[in-house]
């Protein structure tokens, strides 16, 4: 893996971003019982916000069900790389009847502590564990059936290092699942909205899906599914002039939570302009 100074610097920025913002995300958001720090997806059949927040969790669960059927009687092992406060693993381990052991990695010690506490409250501490770790330097052995990241891959300052590390974790036939924002062929790196999104949300790994597919292939990961979930997002109605004013204010108001707001406003503009799409990618290890 790459151990460059820029990557280390970016990891520190992401750690600080979540250490300082997680409690505010949970207090000011509308996660309810989902404990999700990711977007709501209003796909066909979704009727309420909890269902929308758990939609991506359900997509991942469906793949884990397939993997569990391939190893009847065995314990399915999965890793959530960038697990936040554990919402996805809580959903999956509570809905999967087959034996499962999941481990969640978060770069934030605060998030890891919250996730461990919540696992005990849910009675899921025997099915999932949470550790503070940087997924650029994975402290896990291989042989897992699945690894997944929801809105975490783009935080990587070294996407090839992430993909190589994830591939190392998986057994043959195992699956890597990425749900995240990906660049399109519209615009270029000088676009102000892309710049504001990257800086506000600390997403140096924002990549094009064709590049990710090619790089994953070099690590023995074959693309099985590429689903565009963007049409199912409910985008903000903030007018462009106001979005621009909010984005520019980020240069003056340096509070970390305001930086996340300016990044989120910029992301909405990126999605509206077609600069970014929210995609669900699944790869299989050869």
Written description of the protein model:
The chain is of the alpha/beta class. Helix 4 links the parallel strand 1 and strand 2. It is globular. It is 44% helix and 20% strand.
Essential attributes:
single chain, 286 residues, alpha/beta, seven-stranded mixed β-sheet, 10 helices, globular
Q: Which sheet architecture does the biggest sheet show?
A: 7 strands, mixed
What does the overall shape look like? globular
What is the number of helices?
Answer: 10
Radius of gyration: 18 Å
Sequence-ordered SSE layout with sheet pairings:
Elements: H1 5-28, H2 49-53, H3 55-69, E1 76-81, H4 87-95, E2 100-106, H5 109-122, E3 128-132, E4 144-150, H6 159-169, E5 170-183, H7 192-201, H8 209-218, E6 221-228, H9 240-249, H10 256-272, E7 276-285
Concise structural overview:
The chain is α/β, with parallel strands linked by helices and 286 residues long. Helix content is 44%, strand content 20%. The protein is globular, with a radius of gyration of 18 Å.
